[in-house]
């Protein structure tokens, strides 16, 4: 595969990841009333683990090396933390507000990648990040702004956890394929959270069909598939560059929430989405040589 084609597929994988992760925010809102934060985190990861376990023979998943276990463990901790913190935050915040907070994750990815992976953040990429972040601020203002309270801090913690996972997954993709990194991470996170929520399986048994559908989307789509497409993309691109695609999530989340939940975006939300798109395109493209 030529370099241009490989990069094109990486961008397609990023768009797929952003779309699946965006759909998670309204899906969480649907499932939370019946599951609660901790039960939902476990249910989502259990579904994802089963899906990946069934696909493992086809995907050719290998055993990880002993030297990589600390990084895998760090990724699993970050994933488990992200799932729980995001769910808790969405108990008290709308899916749009939550998606906006999590959209700051690339900032923490870039910071960690610069220190841990020695990745260089160019001026163009930094400018694109700033423009995209401005777009998220426009959407936040349209939704009434945000107060700095416990909910905001919890969602900020979710964003930091997401950014940390993206940074630590980069070295793993140099030695393992995207599906393998996804399996290691999700299986590890599942084992960590199950003991903390023993009632999760009872909640899964008693849940309504709408909540069950939301959990299936979260587990299979937003976790199993999205983590594999993310692993593929980050293997082809810098971690900080790949994480710029997260700025697309709030705009996509608004569209998904409109179709699924009937939440209507206003003109300012659409303007913010356009600004986000402009920033992402600036960060993910290179200037033409003259």
What does the oligomeric state look like here?
single chain
Shape: globular
How many distinct beta strands?
0
Unreliable residue runs: none
Report the end-to-end length measured between terminal Cα atoms. Answer: 27 Å
- Spell the H/E element sequence: HHHHHHHHHHHHH
Largest sheet: none
The number of helical runs is: 13
Helix content: over 70%
Strand content: under 5%
Structural class: mainly alpha
Task: Give the C-alpha Rg.
Answer: 18 Å
GO cellular component, one term: membrane
Keywords: Membrane, Transmembrane, Transmembrane helix
Protein name: Membrane protein
Family: Belongs to the EamA transporter family.
Structural topology:
Elements: H1 3-35, H2 37-59, H3 69-92, H4 95-102, H5 105-116, H6 123-142, H7 150-173, H8 178-193, H9 200-206, H10 209-236, H11 239-242, H12 249-261, H13 267-284
Helix pairs in contact: 1-2, 1-4, 1-10, 1-12, 2-3, 2-8, 2-9, 2-10, 3-7, 3-8, 4-12, 5-7, 6-13, 7-10, 8-10, 12-13
InterPro entries: Alkyne_AA_exporter, EamA_dom, EmrE-like
Transmembrane segments: 42-61, 68-86, 98-117, 126-144, 150-169, 181-201, 207-229, 241-261, 267-285
Pfam family, one: EamA
In short:
By secondary structure, the chain is mainly alpha-helical. It contains 13 helices and no strands.
